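Model it.
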Amino acid sequence: MIPRLSPDALRGDVAEMLRPRVERLGYLGEFFRCAAHQPSALISFMAFTDDLKHALPDRITEIVALTVSTDLGNAYERHQHERLSIKLGFGEDWIRAIETLAEDVAQPFQGRDRGADQDPPGLRRSAVASAKAESPARQKLSDTERCVQALTLAVIRRHGHGTSGELKAVVDAIGHEQAIAVLMLIGRYVMHALMVNALEMEPPVPSPLEASS
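Modeled.
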C-alpha cells in the first residue's frame, strides 16, 4: 500500500541526514523508508527528536520512549530502545521495571469538561505516593523516574485530561522547562507508535530481553 523507499531513492538531504544512522545500524529502518515520502517533514521530525534528547537526561528520555512504546504496542520502537538502554548501561532489570507498567500508576480518563480546573475525583494521587504500593520490580526506579512514567501513562490513557497532579509531581522533581520537554517527547513517541502500528511495521531487531528471559 505504501511503497518502502530504497536508500538510493531518498532525497539527497534525507540520505545525508540518515547516513550515520544507517552506517551505525547496518540497515535503513522501515519507518524511514515510509516517512521519507515526506522528506521535509521527516527532517523536521528528526531535528525535533534530537532537540528533545539534548533537553533531557538519557534516563528520562528512555523512560518516556519505553513507556510509550510498551503501552501502545510499538515493538518496533521498544526493541530499539531496549537495546539503546542496555548500551547506555541502564541494565535489563531497569528496563523490565519500566515495562511492568503497573496498573495503579495511571487510570484511564473518566470524563472531564474541557477547560475545567479540577482533576476528576480519584485522580489526584501523587505519582510518588502511588509508587509505594507498586511491585518490587518497579522499586528499581527512582522517585523521579516513577513520576515521569506516571505522567507519561496518564497523558496517554486520559488523552491529556486530568493530569495536573502527575504534571505537578514532574515539575517539582525536574523543573518546568524539562517537564515541557517530557510532554513534547510523549507526543513524539505517540506519533511514531500510531504511524508504525497503522503501517503494520515489524521490529527490525529482536528484543534483547527475550534472549535472557
